[in-house]
Specification:
heterodimer, A: alpha+beta, 7-stranded antiparallel sheet, 4 helices, 9 strands, 25% strand, B: alpha+beta
Chain lengths: 219, 178
């Protein structure tokens, strides 16, 4: 008799566990679908996109719709799967689409020009001195693009942006406060989201090359 | 009187809308499950074209392809794979994998016109794919080694036409020394 009552309790407990697990599974499915097909926050780190992105890491929002409808173009920062290591995803800027002619420096004295083949893109990091990109492994098939970065989410401490009014000036110097005093004030910690658009129009992307060329020719 | 009819109509409308949304949700859930299975487990596809004769017909054969082996790196030379074309990113093609990274692959450059063979070492992170019908196939001999991430699935079973039903696991493998 007691065994039957235990079984009954077990059944209801198991049913409740199953229901809760189903809810969690559905939520994870929704999260996964959103991450893969709509928009996902991604942590990117490394020196190859300085000064656009931080060395120690930045959370960026990347959307996964544009590359499926073919709206990725020159000047976009994209997430692309590395052709050298299929488990890594790189963040680089698209500098040339198929059919474009790109010039790059293999060393400061010698530049090379290639035409991007059909179905491929040419990607380069913004920090050309510390980036392994298409200049090393060649143009990358368009199918390896995973998403396009459009926003950056960054955290700023109050030491850099100060909302409370400055104290009355005791001297004639401008109102400055040392970071430590700000830090220990009542509202010492504040999040600020900074949104900055990352796609640059086509003519500005060409300007990148001209600028680099100009610097190199000075050597 | 008009108010009563209005309230009755609202009641009916509400239940219809509720039933419709419930059914739509069930259908949507079913399609979600189908999509997840297709993308991460196993999918079936129709392949047509002359590049895999005699394994696949010109007019089209249906087969099952599974997606787990690619993610775990369990493909090897001799497997038939589904891959996204490096030349047209919207096209998915079926070819046979002949070499993984750092393998040395020998291939006939232009079998219609000459017998010249070439050997290449597949670079890191890439694979070499070729169609079974080397006379009429656009594959790695034209567009070079393909990055591993472009692989989408491994074909393991042919399901249509029924008289050619059967497993495709490394049985018709090309001679790797060719």
């Amino acid at each position: 008799m007691r065994l039957l009552s235990y079984m009954g309790q077990w059944k209801s407990a198991a049913k409740e566990v199953l229901d809760r697990t189903a809810i969690v599974a559905k939520f994870l499915c929704l999260l996964h679908v959103t991450n893969n097909y709509l928009c996902s926050p991604t942590l990117v780190y490394g020196p190859s996109m300085l000064p656009t992105l931080n060395l120690t890491g930045d959370v960026v929002l990347a959307e996964h719709v544009s590359h499926r409808i073919g709206k990725v173009g020159t000047g976009d920062v994209v997430l692309v799967r590395s052709p050298v290591d299929p488990r890594r995803i790189l963040t680089k800027r698209v500098v040339g689409m198929e059919g474009d002619t790109v010039s790059f420096y293999v060393d400061p004295m010698y530049s090379q020009t290639t035409v991007v083949p059909k179905g491929h893109v040419w990607i380069q990091g913004d920090n050309t001195y510390a980036s392994s990109d298409s200049r090393h492994f060649g143009s990358v098939p368009y199918g390896l693009i995973q998403g396009k970065v459009f926003f950056r989410v960054s955290l700023f401490y109050l030491a850099y942006t100060h909302p409370t009014p400055p104290p009355p000036p005791t001297h004639t110097h401008t109102h400055t406060q040392t970071p430590s005093s700000i830090f220990f004030q009542k509202n010492w910690f504040q999040l600020q989201f900074q949104f900055r658009k990352y796609s640059i129009p086509r003519n500005e992307a060409c300007f990148y090359f001209v600028r680099i060329d100009g610097i190199m020719e000075m050597f | 009187m008009v108010g009563l009819i209005g309230r009755l109509w609202n009641l009916q409308y509400k239940s219809i809308v509720k039933e419709a949304s419930g059914k739509t949700l069930a259908v949507a859930k079913f399609f979600c499950v189908l999509h997840i299975t297709n993308t991460y487990l196993c999918t079936f596809a129709l392949a047509y074209g002359p590049s895999m004769i005699p394994t696949f017909n010109l007019t089209g054969d249906m087969f099952l392809a599974e997606r787990l082996s690619i993610k775990f790196g369990k493909v090897g030379p001799g497997d038939i794979v589904l891959l996204r074309s490096p030349e047209s990113p919207r096209k998915v093609m079926v070819k046979r994998l002949l070499g993984l990274e750092s393998h040395s692959v020998t291939y006939v450059v232009d079998p219609m016109n000459s017998d010249r063979c070439d050997t290449i070492v597949v670079p890191k992170g890439h694979v070499w794919v070729e169609g079974d019908n080397i006379y009429n196939s656009r594959d790695s001999r034209q567009f070079g080694p393909v990055p591993y991430s472009l692989l989408e699935g491994k074909v393991f079973c042919k399901i249509w036409p029924p008289k050619e039903f059967g497993s495709l696991m490394k049985s018709g493998m090309k001679d790797p020394d060719l």
